Amino acid sequence: MHDFEILKDIVIILAFALPIIYLFKRIHIPTLVGFLLAGMVIGPHGLNLIDGSTEIEVMAEVGVIFLLFTIGLEVSLTQLIKMKSIMILAGGSQVIFTVLISYGLFLLLGIDGNLAFLFGMLLSLSSTAIVLKLLSDRDELSAPQGKISIGILIFQDLMIVPMFLVLPMLQPDNDLSYNYILSKLGLAFGLLIVILLLAKFLMPKIMYQLAKLRMRDAFVIGILVIILGTAYLTHSLGLSFALGAFIAGLILAESEYNSQILSDTLPFKDVFNSIFFVSVGLMLNVNFVFEFPILITGFTLLVILLKAIVIILIVLALKYPFRIAIITGFGLAQIGEFSIIIAQASNTFNLLSEYHYNVFLASAIFTMVLTPFLFKLSARLGFASNKLPTLKEIKGDKQLGKMSNHVIIAGFGLNGRNLARVLRETGISYIVVELNPDTVQREKANGERIIYGDVSKAEILKHVKIDKANTLVFSISDPPTAKRAVRIAKQLNPELFVIVRTRYVSEISELKKLGADAVIPEEFETSLELFRKVLIKFHIPMNIIMQQISLLRQESYKLLRDNEMDVTTLTHLNEILAENLTETYYVNDDNPNIEKQLKEINLRAKTGATVITIIRKGKTIFNPSGEEKLQAHDNLVMMGIHKAIDDAAKLLTGPREIDEE
Question: Rounded to two decimals, what is the model's pTM?
């Protein structure tokens, strides 16, 4: 019966996982935190429902393999190249300085040199899973703090490789020569290159053959063989399982099958991942925490403050404002899941005593649990920095001149660029406020009207003459910043017209209360575009489409916010469709009806629609006779019910153009 003990453990873990997922989703805390706490409760030092069996540890290892694989799949070599500047500068500086400062600090505390260096490596890594989840939930992945965090996290994930290679060299009795160490590193990286090359050439062919079978079960099994096989290969060569999985994901990310692969492997990752975090909680010795509460608390605070200060200084050195620096710093101040994996691997080389391991593990878990609260705290501390003096980079900017009745654009991403281009072409005065110093420097060199600054600061808004501005447009994807900036902008200029881009319909009400005049939620505008495209495909007249869109917007998106179908809106549409309406039709150069008389086309008899006016070369022909011939570039004004207008458009267009459409 003992052989089936693993089944009981799995049932207990999954039974606890379900309520945790539901509860933590309701209170907006990552479920991974709940899994850590659950492991502490049901583990050998809690209710003792699970004794931390070897089988659970094996499944946890599989969870890490899938986690690394999906990270590699989502990152890809192309993405690494695009983010190279932030990744290398911010990520590289963070890891190097955290390791060096920690190393020096632990040496001062009397810790052995090798152990101090190991602690430095463990402290340098943050939790990719938790941070990305929180950034996604807060819709800040595209915000400056999101981009910087992702760059740092990717670099940290890449540093796992050399960290695993360094572990055997940190053994207390290690008398290896530098030549031996360098040769070992060279051999390891040589093996990595060979694996990468083999994977690069073999995996696409294997994937093609799997896809060619057109059997989903064969495709999924093939993917599992690739993941676990590559992981086992790297393990056989003296490297780690996780490294092989990461390489497999990195290679497959470049293939056309990556979306399907991610879809098929995600359930495995989620299940095994939850087991991994529960297993981490199982390992925590709760009695040890109660025995040394001051030590654990002090070490936890030390880790948070050390990592936060290092990252804040690095982000400030990259010329980002203090608000972005403090949000990024405290957001990445926890110890990551891969630090725990490296700590477990270090036990193989007897690098950590049980005492030091328990101190590290307890602190790591508590920093993870505190992360959601640190995110909220950092946002408040960041906005408190608005009381600081305006940064020197915006002082003395002469490009504003005597600007008035202008448009202020917050953010210079895709939406901001498009808006600036249109305003420039139409001669409307504008100024862009952007937080990315590289973007500001590059665009200024190109002659763009742009300044560096945080639009949520009153000083910045005053500098861009908010009191004389006509419109403020938020093209950024940073809801907390937008909400604060809207309130401040309206206080400084109550007559200002404010347009805010947001992601979700649920945010409309709050932004309206703060003073936003127009809120454009991406999810709703996408639904309107789908709605418009479908009706156009069925040749619904454009004025009908625009009236319906106008109705939805006038009701402030109530149709979707209430999650109920407002029948009055559809009633409006039915009434419109039942009434006579007018519609214009433009005659193209290749229209088959050119030089045909109206009576020859016989529009009224065939469709019920009547041509009441022809606009030709700036002149208007009212009530044209049947002898009137159509000419290229004519604008026909037709009247009739909806179906008649639709049929008339089809008849005038001709079968050839309808087929082309």
Answer: 0.62
